[in-house]
């Protein structure tokens, strides 16, 4: 990441005569200037540019130079403002040097300037300020104060270093700087004589209490902030809001912040008025902005969403009272505008009718291969005060096999035969259309489409005892509401010990991303070699079904394991049929248990720019194990014709996208030091020949991390299909 070195642009700027004009330039070739900065007359002496009364006089060029005509009359202080607005330096209007030292003089003058003064009074005010600043900096009172000298050209290292410290401090907290300028000046002068060096990429500044801080200021990635502002939706009052989610990765440039490791600060959010509209804003998993709503949107207007991150610095205390503490230095924030539009269309949704229809739809009984038909009465769904209503349309139904028939102004029939099972929550969208073609969408949530599929009864299962069974090291994480949080890289090993009929499990985060440990045959699992005893199990014969009971929060869960012997490319594996039952509910899963670490460890070393081909297991209609061929890739550069800052792809061979999206929910995540992070994605699906191509695109660049392409099996298919996962190692030294 390229970061601005703000400190290096602001040490000294000199005004010298040139063709009867004034020219601002750096006094030394090794000191970069302030390019494209604003020059203005600070008439009200507050260090802020009031555009109405203090227009821009000119701007500096690429080398930081500018000219003012000799006819220009300054009423206030001559001020230069950096392009990003983080720094304003001033000088009295009769001086020809601008630096952080001259800015100190202006600050002290303004502290005593409570009314308009005569020219003679201004001279006295200025001299008093020079004396105060000079006293704090240890500068002798001479006819021409060194505060207005070319101290860089004159190689006055003490004043140069002092100016550096002052500039960095003012950038970090301009308000506190102005209030405590003399104390900060005194500390800066002491530092110039007793220098303290910060580490690379860190700058040294001074707090309002005169304490010394090493810190790399957190800045905002302006291009990503602009993209996020542009991406924010504008929902309509009285309408359903489908939600919004975006990655905040790289929004705050904090790579060099001293707190970016063990002392890092999370992103926090403040939006005082948004919740009253029925929309909730939250930070998901520390890296994503999420906007959601459970009701129709209320309220209107523009609401502010402010994202903040505390800047952590190393506080070294004062020269007389040193310390070494990581502390909050400042808070960096960026604010976005979220606008709710008034519904100015001719028709709108009747909230009461919408609720009644949703209750009706929730009672639908949908099952795969079972014919279905239902008629919805829509006569009161849409308000039509202007008598412009024309008709209704089925805009979208997210269940393959169902469609609409007999559409008219007052009803719609939904019928067909569901082709695939689906979890509850899929969308049904009915549009009300007026005579001008304008439409209003009513969004409904569909119930579950039951699969009617039960796991097969395996009469003779594989023996699971006394074998180290390695589980593919990808773990899907969800929050309490079931939202997918990301995938973490773990290493899991199970061992069913026949000696004491106990299940031993080994699981740890692979912080080094190196490999799963290999346990030789004959090893007995125990706490000493990293295993945990989960308790005793029972084994049935001849099915070799293992049953294990686990107590969780006072409730007992029954877990069963059974396996079939399978082979991939001539290597034997176990196809594991697992179930978890609590009360009347059962959850199923299908996954491969590997008998060696070769495939497990290869997951962690896939490089970018490589097409990875693999197979995942599933059961056919006769409950026989089959293989689904899948190809995955993550290019290091976005291919020509693709959009975004990063790209990834999955190809499911001999499967349509309708079938693939019914069975799987696709996402891509990354894991840093074992911590799962959500990757902000746009996902598209395209049938190409007999294959389904899943294309991931992200505005966020690839991280130095383990990136995982992931297909999570939807609940109705959990006992029939194995999850898809491919990991790519993009860790950089």
Explain the layout of strands and helices:
Elements: E1 12-18, E2 21-25, E3 38-42, E4 56-59, E5 66-68, E6 77-81, E7 88-91, E8 97-99, H1 100-112, H2 119-137, H3 157-172, H4 174-179, H5 181-193, E9 203-206, E10 212-215, E11 219-220, H6 222-231, E12 244-247, E13 252-253, E14 267-270, E15 279-284, E16 288-293, E17 301-317, E18 322-340, E19 348-349, H7 351-362, E20 366-367, E21 372-377, E22 382-383, E23 389-397, E24 402-405, E25 411-416, E26 427-434, E27 439-445, E28 449-450, E29 469-471, E30 474-478, E31 484-497, E32 502-509, E33 532-539, E34 546-552, E35 555-568, E36 571-582, E37 585-594, H8 598-602, E38 612-619, E39 625-633, E40 646-652, H9 657-663, E41 664-672, E42 675-678, E43 682-688, E44 691-698, E45 706-713, E46 724-729
Summarize the structure.
The protein has 733 residues and is mostly beta strands.
Structure description:
It is a single chain. With 733 residues, this protein is mainly beta. The protein has four domains: 6-210, no CATH class; 219-340, Sandwich (Immunoglobulin-like); 348-450, Immunoglobulins (Immunoglobulin-like, Sandwich); 469-729, no CATH class. Helices cover 14% and strands 41% of the residues. It contains nine helices and 46 strands. A hairpin with a 5-residue loop joins β9 and β10. α2 packs across α5 (181-193) and α3 crosses α5 (181-193). The longest helix is centred in the N-terminal third of the chain and has 19 residues, at 119-137. It is globular and about 105 Å long.
